[in-house]
Amino acid sequence: MSAFLDQLQQYIERHALFKSNDQLLLAVSGGLDSVVMAQGLQLLGYKFGIAHCNFNLRGEESKADEKFVRQLALSFQVPFFLKQFETSQLAQESKVSIQMAARDLRYAWLEEIRFQHGYAFVAAAHHQNDLVETVLLNLVRGTGLAGFHGILPKQGNVVRPLLFATREQAEDFAKDYILRWREDTSNASNKYARNLVRNKVIPILKTLNPSLENTMKSTAEKVALAEKVLARQVEEAKSKWVTEGQGFVKIDIQGLQSITNALYFLHAILQEFGFSWSVSKKVMESGSGISGKIFYSSTHRLLKDRENWIIDYREVAKFVPVSILPTTQTVRLLFGKVLNLKLLEGGLELVTILKSKSSVLLDYDKLVFPLTLRSWQEGDTFIPFGMEGEKKISDFLIDAKYSLFEKERIVVLQSGQEIVAIIGCRSGQRYSVGQATKRILVAELVFIG
Description:
The chain is an alpha+beta fold. 41% of the residues lie in helices and 22% in strands.
């Protein structure tokens, strides 16, 4: 067995990439790296199928690549899977680069095939040179620790068994076993950022450090270990200071600020919701400021409230008014909430039993059906239970210390032209259960996630 195959087997075992009896799906472009991966795994006795993506970006070359990989699979007598993409069109529709579109299309399709055909993992043929290019590109574009470890040996259902090797080692193995492969002529063009780094930047860096690939590999391994340590600390902080419920994520401001280097922990939490480093810094600065400031990512928004930073989706659906009939038992609200309605025979003697923070109790016989369930509006008023005069709902919610995001989700129950209850909060005085009540309408707000 060659030294290359020894190193390949050792790398697979050291990183527990897969077991000897696992079926693998190899992503094969037809280039040197993927051909070497396929040949190496075949010589080591691993079982696999081959998948090829034709992105239709290079005309006849793309067709020749497809034909070559099909023949390669036939020579190995393994299953062959093919997918053709109109990559340029899809990239334009998605408003992303062609490279990003190709990457997303490729991995989505490979995962689909892996799942459908029962393969344990998708194997990609990245090597040390790819790792160096990735780290440098991440550094130029801006990155955190994850960008410095570059490409991981194992990530979800994707494994990369060639990360131990340089391109030169792969070429030597190919020459020893007289392998054929396809050359992608676009690799010589500096039109793409990765090619520019490969063809121009790395040669200069190697004049400073001829062992650049090995140095970067060692650095990436150390960074990956450090990232795992910090990830555990972040999870510990989240367990103490982050809560989820009622459709919101809340971060205890004072609690998080008590941590040394709190900004790092805050950003580690916020980046899961698409917030950038610069926005995370502004959020941290807001901790000592007044309530009400809102920050945005592409998908979420964050409110600085009195004691918490509250995260919600950026786009919030509007609740469409619903008519409530005497026969209505359940109404599905937005944000994972359900309103359960129940008619009970009885009066004041039931209040102690039925009373809860999530329920409002109303005198059924004072209501005029159909009732209307709707979002509250500026200018709405009602007489809260226990009070005599009218109060604006906006003022009531402020006094009850509802956050801006929570207010957006408040719905009211209306009988005729009068608001009889704020659902999940307070009934109206005129419609509350009293001495003369004979029947009670229980409106219970339930969160089902």
